[in-house]
């Protein structure tokens, strides 16, 4: 099957991506004390050289005491910014485009049994799991300061020269903790029984990010129904609820919705084959990115348990892209395993595609 659909340019605001392939954000924990090194810059440069249309960096955190849950996750403020500029410069020199994924982990725990938070934990209700309170809920001041810190990081992204910004609103981290009724039991304006109530924090973050980057830089928002705390959790059970959730975020200034699934082919609601990105594009009318097991025969949560995956056909994906179900396709592990994955797909060098093995998680090759 022709791969031409993947190699059409795509315009978002003033930014033209050369093709439809986005590198998915992947935490690597190779930034000692939060500062990205020249190895990190080289790792992203190799993906730019390999033909990726838009690189989204690993999650990098805003300036809040406990925004990260691992000391080697990169920060996005202070001393780290000149290092991020080197990353951007190397990617641009290789002809690539790059967006940081702006992150705050909220109450999501770090690796290892002995993990202790790096400061006062921010979360809507202090829950780590539904009904399991462990921390104090955020005060009104914490909420205001956190929204302001998101805005500041967006300004920094623009100043450093990034081409777009992605907000991490998925996978059960801080912004998603506000969306999810399981972790948001607040009774003030940041919570409430309806999805529209719980969307308000995300809306204010989007507005702050938009103000920080200005009108021209594209703002991408990553969302998921599933949570790392509960793979079966859902924010929206129906298309109407999806609109209740996403329309205010769209109005607040999101340009592209990045709809995270573990397997892109799974339908989001009964009665249609459309996936999460497909429904979002149809109902909200903004461009969308799909993701989840593209080009591989196993999914990524299993990869953390050590499972490898083999190359898989792209035909089903390309058929959906040709039908304009979504606009862009994010690829994670296939690009960890092989920086040249995009060029190989473009050139039909399928016999050169590599397996994804757990060893790829341990290096910045
Ligand atoms: C090592 C690793 C780290 C990840 N870190 C992040 C992250 O920082 N932010 C995020 O939104 N998703 C993260 N993800 C999820 C990926 O962006 C992607 O959605 C997932 O791997 C599915 O895509 P794939 O099947 O192509 O790998 C991570 C995935 C992997 C494998």
Could you explain how this protein is built, in words?
By secondary structure, the protein is of the alpha/beta class. It has twelve helices and twelve strands. Helix content is 32%, strand content 14%. Helix 1 packs parallel to helix 2 and helix 7 packs across helix 8. The two termini are 30 Å apart. Flavin mononucleotide binds next to strand 4, helix 9 and helix 11.
Which terms would index this structure?
single chain, 365 residues, alpha/beta, TIM Barrel, 8-stranded parallel beta barrel, two-stranded antiparallel ribbon, 12 helices, 14% strand, binds flavin mononucleotide, FMN
Strand order of the largest sheet: 3-4-5-8-9-10-11-12
CATH domain topology: TIM Barrel
Which shape, going by the Cα principal axes? Answer: globular
Q: Ligands in the structure?
A: flavin mononucleotide
Mean pLDDT, all residues: 97
* CA-based gyration radius: 19 Å
CATH architecture assignment name: Alpha-Beta Barrel
Assign the structural class, choosing from mainly alpha, mainly beta, alpha/beta, alpha+beta, or little secondary structure.
alpha/beta
CATH H level, superfamily name: Aldolase class I
What is the CATH class? Alpha Beta
**What is the N-to-C order of secondary-structure elements (H for helix, E for strand)?**
EEEHEHEEEHEHHHEHEHEHHEHH
Low-pLDDT windows of residues: none
What separation lies between the terminal Cα atoms? Answer: 30 Å
How much strand content do the residues show? 5-15%
């Amino acid at each position: 099957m022709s791969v031409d659909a993947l190699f059409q340019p795509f315009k978002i605001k003033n930014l033209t991506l050369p093709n439809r392939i986005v590198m998915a954000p992947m935490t690597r924990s190779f930034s000692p004390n939060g500062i990205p090194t020249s190895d990190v810059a080289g790792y992203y440069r190799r993906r730019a050289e390999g033909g990726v249309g838009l690189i989204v960096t690993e999650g990098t955190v805003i300036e809040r005491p406990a925004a990260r849950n691992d000391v080697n996750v990169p920060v996005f403020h202070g001393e780290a910014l000149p290092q991020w500029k080197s990353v951007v410069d190397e990617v641009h020199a290789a002809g690539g485009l790059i967006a940081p994924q702006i992150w705050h982990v909220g109450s999501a725990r770090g690796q290892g049994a002995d993990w202790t938070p790096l400061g006062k934990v921010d979360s809507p209700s202090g829950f780590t799991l539904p009904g399991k309170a462990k921390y104090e809920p955020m005060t009104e001041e914490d909420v205001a300061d956190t929204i302001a810190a998101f805005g500041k990081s967006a300004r920094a992204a623009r100043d450093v020269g990034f081409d777009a910004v992605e907000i991490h609103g998925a996978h059960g981290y801080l912004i998603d903790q506000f969306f999810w009724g399981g972790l948001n039991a607040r009774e003030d304006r940041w919570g409430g029984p309806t999805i529209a109530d719980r969307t308000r924090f995300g809306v204010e973050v989007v507005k702050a990010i938009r103000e920080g980057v200005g009108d021209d830089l594209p703002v991408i928002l990553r969302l998921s129904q599933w949570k790392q705390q509960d793979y079966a959790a859902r924010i929206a059970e129906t298309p109407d609820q999806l609109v209740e959730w996403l329309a205010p975020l769209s109005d607040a200034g999101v340009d592209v919705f990045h709809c995270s699934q573990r397997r892109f082919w799974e339908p989001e609601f009964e009665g249609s084959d459309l996936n999460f990105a497909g429904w979002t594009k149809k109902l909200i009318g903004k461009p969308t990115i799909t993701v989840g097991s593209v080009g591989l025969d196993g999914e990524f949560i299993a990869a953390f348990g050590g499972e490898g995956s083999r190359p898989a056909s792209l035909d089903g994906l390309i058929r959906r892209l040709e039908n304009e179900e979504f606009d862009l396709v994010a690829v994670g592990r296939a690009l960890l395993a092989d920086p040249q994955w995009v060029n190989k797909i473009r050139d039909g060098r399928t016999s050169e595609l590599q397996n994804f093995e757990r060893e790829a998680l341990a290096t910045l090759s």
